[in-house]
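[Meeting: bench + compute handoff]

Bench side (C.D.) handed over the final construct sequence. Compute side (W.E.) agreed to return the predicted structure before the next meeting so the bench team could plan truncations. Sequence as handed over:
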Amino acid sequence: MSFFTYAAGGVLLCALIGALANQHYAWMALGCAALGSWLPHLCKRPWLTLTHSLLGLAGCAVLLSPLLVCHHAVFWTALVIGYASHLLFDAGSDRGVRLFYPSRARAVIPRHPLSRVPPGSPREALLRRWLLGLWLVALPLNALGLRGLLHQLLPVIQFAVEDYETIAGQGRRVVADFTGHFTASQRPIAGRWEVLEAMDRTTLLVEDPVGHRYALGTHPHDTIQVLRIRARQGPSVDVQVHTIHLHEQLLSDLVPLLPSEGRTYLIGLVKTPEAVQPRLSVEEFRSVHAGSGQVELRYATAHDLDDQHLLGLYVTDGDVILRTLKAPGSHPTSSGDAPPAHAAPRRTITLIVRHLAGPQELLVHEGQPVTAGQPLMDLRGYRVELQAEMQVVQAQVAAADALVVALHLKQAQAGSLKRTEDTLMGVHRDLTAWQADEAHALAHAQAQAEAARAKLAKLEHALAATTIRAPARGRFLAMQYHPMTSTATLHLLADD
């Protein structure tokens, strides 16, 4: 047979095997298959019999094995397939081929002589036309593969997830072409959005052109229920991943570490003593989840943190992964190239104010620098209660002091009467008893006066405490009021 017949058969067989194995053979590999189909004829007689056998095929595979060492397995496979196609077409000729050399038995396919193709006959020309015609089917199949063809025929989410993992593993962006409807409003939606991650086998996290993220899939919790979807290959993308450890810091300390180029997403779990109530969206993907004493970030952006007022969140401990997507070849910035493991920790002071009747007036705002002794909160309502109670106690102190003065006068009168005791023997016993009673009354009045003065001093101290002052220089973080316990908690970030 002619070189063109062998080449057409080698390319066809290589394309079909590639389709079955889901291995795309490019034009260079198909050219190797065409070249391999002519390798058995490179040797002249008497070596033709050897090269047209399985033994020759094995020898050719061994001779071409350096391609495997050089990581050109695709070319090695294409050459071997082309070589094998030559033997297959020779077996279909009128003379057959000694496939099992040195055995003299000839392999002939098909067995009926009239069905064989004599070399150089019109049947060979017809066979060559058929082979070239089958290229129209085999080459597209080779490009798609049987799995790719199945995924094109059945646009379901499971196949889209598989295609995403395959394409993303090749360092390419993935675009989801889909139609569906929002889960909450049942509003129809269709788009061609970029895929950020495969959440599970039936859910893709996608982002629309304006930066909103959605969970696309068939699970009831997904924000968009997909009806038809295909994952398509996009341009190349460079993915950079860094891990940042936060300890006794603000979440805003992450912002200077974000690369200036590309899009950066925050993924991680941080612990916080503050109560966080993130904004809920019925249609968008919730990139911020708040739990008991912790906040989970799932592909959140710096804009999300600012929009939900989380940049001032105090983090006791946690790790955040920075996943940055940028175009290949872009120059990384100093911050994005090698971000530090963590920023320097700073001491945190917590002030707890108890027994509050309600929210009080805060004299500083979040993030404002404060100095030692600066007023932080005005307990105005508590001050009014203390002032009213203080007026009552002051009146009690005045009454007790007046009683003490009167008793002192009576005691002086008793002393004068004692001096006339000798002349008043008849009333001596009654006077003694009266003097003892008056002395007891005086001691009791003095004790009441001292108790009133102590209570007054305590109220003065409590009145001074109605203004909560910063114990150190630093930055005020936040105030939280707990109505169940009537307690307010103030957080300061000290500079020392």
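W.E. noted at the follow-up: The mean pLDDT is 82. C.D. will use this when planning the next construct.
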